[in-house]
Design brief:
about 55% helix; four-stranded antiparallel beta sheet; 2 domains; alpha+beta
């Protein structure tokens, strides 16, 4: 790639600020492995920061990283993002909060299951009631039709004589 056709694009991806020297937004997105909307949503942009431009042009087409928010240099392999140190007391408190939250979630799920089972039972009972009601209606309708057919046959028989 000729450097006069390259632009330097910058994006915040995950825990890192990234830059890449590319000929177009499309090729920058391909280098990042990002979707089409990163520029439209403002997650990626062209940068004119001299240090970023110099680093990117030294490695065209390669994604260079640095930890988000740091002012350090961009590198092929960024410095590790360190997790904040937590005291044992804070760690235990966090574990207890997670356990309590998990228990509360489980109790809510159990309650939801009981309510769903009760609703299903009520629905089955209602369906059985309606089925028996419809069975009685059907039997009554069939009996009425049988009587009507019998009357019609009787009248027809009486008229033939």
């Amino acid at each position: 790639m000729a450097s006069r056709h390259l632009k330097v694009f910058q994006a915040h991806l995950g825990f890192y600020d990234t830059i890449v020297a590319a000929t177009s937004q499309k090729s920058a997105l391909e280098a990042w492995g990002a979707g089409k909307g990163e520029f439209a949503r403002g997650f990626a942009r062209v940068t004119t920061d001299p240090a970023a431009v110099q680093s990117a042009l030294a490695h065209p087409g390669e994604v260079l990283r640095r930890p988000f928010g740091s002012g350090g240099p961009f590198k092929r392999q960024a410095d590790a993002v360190l997790a904040p140190k937590v005291s044992p007391r804070q760690d235990r408190a966090a574990q207890q909060r997670r356990r309590k939250a998990a228990m509360a979630e489980r109790k809510a799920a159990e309650q939801e299951l009981r309510e769903a089972q009760a609703e299903a039972s009520r629905a089955r009972t209602e369906l059985k009631r309606r089925e028996s009601e419809l069975a009685r209606e059907k039997a009554g309708a069939e009996e009425m039709v049988r009587r009507r057919i019998a009357r019609a046959k009787a009248r027809l028989k009486n008229r033939k004589r």
